[in-house]
Amino acid sequence: MPSRLLAPKPDKNNHVRRLSSRTATEDDFVGGPATVAPDSLLASDDGGDSIAASIEVARSRIGNADATPAGSPGETHVTDRYAFAFDIDGVLIKGGEVIPEAKEAMQVLNGKNEYGIKVPYIFVTNGGGKTEEERCIQLSKQLEIEVSPGQFICGHTPMRELAVKYETILVVGGEGEKCREVAEGYGFRDVVTPGDIIKDNHATTPFRTLTDTEHEASRPRNFAEVEINAICVFADSRDWASDIQIIIDICTSKNGRLGTRSDNYDEGPPVFFSHSDVVWATSHESSRLGMGALRANLEATFKSVTGKELVTTAFGKPQMETFEFATRLLQQWRKDTHGINAPPDTVYFVGDTPESDIRGTNDFDKHSDERTHWFSILVRSGVFRDGTTPAFKPRQTVDTVLDAVNFGIQREISNDVKKELNKNKV
Question: What is the pTM of this model?
Fold first, then answer.
């Protein structure tokens, strides 16, 4: 089935529609590239300087050999030499509420600074369970900015590449049927949920009974005739005990067929997680357990049951593929907007979790080529707290995302001044 979530091809004029965040729905994105903005911004004319629109076009052009040339770059107030990449939870949003300095930080990047420049930015988040389009609408409302789906790289975004390899998958996590919808949007042909399995055999989970809503949404199947080829944890589990039980049943089966039992416990399907964060920041005073904790629990339980190790795979940060894709996206954006086929010289990554955000940024910077440098900035507004020593050391530590943005811009301005002084000396 065609995927409405795969980036659509731009039209011959690279036209990007602007939708109202007040009324936009996911279905509105089917018609081609689009951004979402508050009504107060829709009447404004960016003169071609919309960061959200230009990155949306770049996202649709990556790997698209048939893409229409972007044309000659025009005059712009958007810098191409550096960019920002942001985690969301603990940096911009916490417990569903906007961190106070986040709105001003976005305004600074969109030109409200003493230099009058705009700075490109993207969002690289391990959060999942929603489509990129849904997150786009939500963040536009929260931060009161123009945003495009192309600016989002979610933890489960790379999983879309698994759709051509696995016919039937179990998708775990998230609210209601949302993760099934995301997976089907990515092109997976046969998507099963834990609810489907419980509906087929209610004895599967002794301590969980489906609600009327869950029972109605779950699809009837005879799982004695179904082989599950892969297990994909798209978002945080809402019921660890039930989900672990079902995953264990499948991993100890013969070729993913429920009701069977492997003799050697190595005939089950592969298990994929969209990220491996053990904790994350919410409105609670202490960090809460995340998907990485579920992963550790599952692996420990499998070993207790079988005596063998369960090897699982995680995407998201700190895995290199996430940063590689972000770099390719920014390179395509720079080529389209400035005619330079290279990524920005510096990408400032702002995160709150040393084990994923800072570790991933530092590792990628160490192993990437000399064309671009990723600079890690740790904020104190999320998981990390003063008085502790981060397991992975950032290049810079600040209080808030606004401090991070101001630091990055001032660092670039200072570097420009130094280069000019050195040039005059010669």
Answer: 0.80
Q: Number of C-alpha atoms within 13 angstroms, CB side, residue 141?
A: 13
pLDDT in tens, 340-394: 999 999 999 999 999 999 999 999 999 887 779 999 999 999 988 778 888 899 9
Question: Which of 171, 350, 316 is closest to 243 using CA atoms?
Answer: 171
E strands present in 134-235: 152-153, 168-172, 190-192, 230-233
d(C-alpha 44, C-alpha 213), whole Å: 43
Distance, in Å, from the CA atom of 88 to the CA atom of 90, rounded to the nearest integer, reads 6
> Left if phi > 0, otherwise alpha if psi is -120 to 50, otherwise beta: which for 278?
alpha
Q: What whole-number distance in Å separates Cα of residue 277 and Cα of residue 290?
A: 6
**How far, in Å, CA of 276 to CA of 295, rounded?**
7
Region class of 230: left (phi > 0), else alpha (psi between -120 and 50), else beta: beta
pLDDT of residue 211: 95
Q: How does DSSP assign 22-58, residue by residue?
A: TT--GGGGGGS-EEEE-HHHHT---TT--HHHHHHHH
- The H helix count followed by the E strand count for the chain is 12, 17
